[in-house]
DNA sequence: CATGAATGAGTATTCATTCAT
DNA sequence: CATGAATGAATACTCATTCAT
């Protein structure tokens, strides 16, 4: 899929995959440290373990590296979400389970998610659309779980908003780490968010204590 | 405050303020359009209505413009929040009122908030700290309102998290506009968020309908 | 005219002219030595007496330098041709005079003409059209002189061809110097060409001796 | 001959010749389209039908391709000139015949001649000397014909110049096509040139009509 | 013999910043 | 105070050439 969008002059497809993985690994670290714009292509090449010339055998433009990084992040997130979500479950417990897995995932991939968050705007319009579609897909997965877990109780728009809230709260753990991770661990963060989500503020004091 | 951090060679303080306002106005538009990195100092000068030489009489480095923009945004946000929040109120209604005002504010300042969100990382460590402190202050204001509205019912950490949730949900309206503003208006978005916040998912269907 | 085609960021027009003349002088020498492609922009800047940054204040692309050079050559050639040709004369002598002046000019500007000859194809289509038009204009001047000098005796196509022959013979003196300048001086070259032109091969031996 | 100047690592001489012919065919087209400098070695390899690695088995440097192309062009021109010229003829008619054949040849090989014209300067000094010598040889052939056709009537320098004129007029048909081929066909061009050559401008009107 | 992946020197171009006027 | 010409470090990208397989 991504290979369709970022052509390479190298014919050996296995090699392309291998080299691009090297690139992505190297680039993420750099993008986290200094951001996309302040990272030079030479640095990316070096961090990837090959020369600048070789780098350009596997991409056309610097932006392609960013695209590859974003694409790879979404791929990994999606895989893990699909592995941890059972769309046939209908209990509230399955929603809670999904949230726990997703928050844990966001904790594991904090850096990557942060990078993506801050740099998508550097992608071309087309690439942005492609990436945002992936995000929509993932929000849809959450919507599905919510819908299954609360059969008939919520309107479509409510479900949409809840899915968005959960999605952003997961990301927020990473991109607002400077404020949240002073007060919470990923576990306390997760449990309190779940509690607030389920009970709301109007629930009695007894329930929430 | 900001003037302390960004020195100017010009003595006339009123003039400094005037010129900097011109700069901020011009720069925000450009940053929204093309981002900080892709905006040149010459473009900023032109959009501000003076020459590149004059621009550098009022700042030291390009980054200063970004700082000035961020600072000005926070100043405006803070002013409006302070105007709309009465810290002595203790009813849930006052929390609801605060949320409504804040979300409306976020709707009005979508572009500015988006810019700030995506570009803070381009500031120096010091400037970032300064700006993030402002953000902490604003979250604190929300915490205060929540605390006053729900006396004794919520733990400190819960209050902190709720404040963060509300704060981010406000920003989310702007930076996830591509997905949210298809489904919601700022009014429906506001009301459903408030409802979800207060009642939670476990509330009976009757209550939520 | 050329200024319309090659915009500069510098406002002071007199300065633009001055700097561009420096550029042209420096560039011609380099182009003669190594050709357009093998000359770097840094070399051009250095030969012009200013920095690479300054160079780019007066042009947009490297190709612009070539255009400026070509344009300046034609301007100078045209000026000298106009000064030495009297379009009201109707004798063969005036044609002979025009040829002599033109060949002398081609001798003086050998290097420049050679450069232009070899590098026009490096210009963009538009620039090429512009330059070739100038060349057409100059051939037309020759046509006019021929037409006036031989009233009623030659068809339009013949005149056209004669003008082209003379024009190319002038240039040939420069771009085939490696073969011609072993055998001829510009004076002998000129006189023999004129003789051949006027008398043709079929003239009797007595006439040509 | 050319093989002496461009060594190959391949032993099989027949194969070397075959591959180089493939190369020349591919390269000429590319050089015509985009010029030598803007044509990459990869493109040449592709157009030749083999890989970049293979290309470099048959040449040492990119310049060698250009040399091979030039050499092949001259070889073909020379062959055709020798086939159409009979050095034993002594009439003016044989000169006219030679000119007609040569102009026709230049019409057939317009593109190749144009390429050579514009790119010889990209060859090394040595290669240029080699190529220019070929050109001298061809001019000599013309000199010979002229000399035989006009026994005793013209001085050596005159003959030299006439040969040069004819030679350049042939090439001019190709490299000034943009101006000439609007007005002339190769046939009218040829006949008028011959007429002008033989009769000169001073011939009476009656003669030229 | 043929292949194509790897290399890195080389180059055009941009842009923040300075400073003389 | 204001201007804008000058600067040159920095950077993305290309492409001839090599060499292991």
Would you mind describing this structure in some detail?
Chain A has 209 residues and is mostly helical. Helix content of chain A is 78%, strand content 0%. Chain A has helices spanning 2-5, 13-38, 41-48, 52-58, 62-84, 92-108, 110-119, 125-149, 156-175, 177-180, 186-199, 205-208. In chain A, helix 2 crosses helix 5 and helix 5 packs parallel to helix 8. Chain A binds a DNA duplex (21 and 21 nucleotides) through residues 9-12, 15, 40-42, 50-54, 56-57, 60-62.
List the helices and strands and how they pair.
The structure is a homotetramer of 209-residue chains.
Chain A: H1 2-5, H2 13-38, H3 41-48, H4 52-58, H5 62-84, H6 92-108, H7 110-119, H8 125-149, H9 156-175, H10 177-180, H11 186-199, H12 205-208
Helix pairs in contact in A: 2-3, 2-5, 2-7, 3-4, 5-6, 5-7, 5-8, 6-8, 6-9, 6-11, 7-9, 8-9
Chain A binds a DNA duplex (21 and 21 nucleotides) through helix 4.
Short description:
Chains A, B, C, D: One of its GO terms (molecular function) is DNA binding. The structure is a homotetramer of 209-residue chains. With 209 residues, the first copy, chain A, is mainly alpha-helical.
């Amino acid at each position: 899929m991504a290979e369709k969008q970022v052509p390479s002059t190298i014919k050996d497809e296995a090699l392309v995959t291998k080299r691009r993985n090297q690139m992505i690994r190297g680039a993420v670290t750099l993008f986290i440290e200094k951001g996309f714009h302040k990272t030079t292509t030479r640095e990316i090449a070096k961090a990837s373990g090959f020369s600048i010339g070789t780098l350009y055998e596997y991409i056309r433009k610097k932006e392609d590296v960013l695209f590859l990084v974003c694409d790879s992040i979404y791929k990994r997130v999606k895989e893990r979400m699909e592995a941890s979500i059972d769309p046939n479950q209908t209990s509230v417990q399955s929603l809670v389970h999904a949230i726990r897995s997703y928050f844990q995932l966001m904790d594991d991939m904090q850096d990557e998610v942060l990078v993506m968050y801050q740099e998508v705007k550097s992608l071309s319009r087309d690439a942005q659309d492609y990436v945002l579609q992936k995000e929509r897909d993932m929000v849809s997965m959450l919507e599905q779980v919510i819908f299954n877990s609360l059969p008939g109780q919520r309107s479509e728009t409510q479900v949409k908003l809840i899915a968005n809230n959960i999605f952003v709260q997961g990301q927020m753990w990473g991109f607002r780490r400077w404020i949240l991770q002073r007060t919470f661990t990923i576990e306390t963060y997760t449990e309190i968010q779940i509690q607030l989500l389920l009970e709301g503020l109007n629930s009695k004091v007894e329930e929430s204590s």
